[in-house]
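Page 42, continued from yesterday. The earlier attempt failed because a stray header line got pasted into the input along with the sequence. Redoing it now with the clean sequence only.
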Amino acid sequence: DPLYKQNELVSRLAMMLGGREAELLVLDSVSSGASDDLKRASELAIEMVGSLGFSETFGLLSVGGIPKELLGPDIQAAVLREARVLLEQAQATCRTLLTAQRARLDAMAQALLTCEVLQGDELQEMLGEVGRAAAPVIEPIGRDQALALAFTRRA
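This time it went through. Structure tokens are written below.
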């Protein structure tokens, strides 16, 4: 298995939510198209909390190392609750990035309506300097900020 830093996994969560969040931003609605991304993001968030030690609640404790007879509904609920917070933080981060890059998002959507696939030089041209730079590491935001952003009405 590859070795990932916590901030890389947080960035990956935000990336996985990008399509769904773009639909919300542009269409003010979501489709079933992001179901696989949501499944994978949920699995990753649960793994981060329950197995990788990226948990405020469990600290260095790996839930996978706890005997099954000790894993009651309270522990399961705590894992799911904290995984959901990670997903909400990633969603808020994703929304912030997409809003800041809205012009590029709209241009790419228009291009995809005509040619269905963007790749290589064409994609690099659409992304401009953003695509040429190393992918930014998305810093996690706090729980309170994520909740505030999650419940902020979109314009």
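Notes: The longest helix spans residues 73-100.
Reminder to self: strip header lines before submitting.
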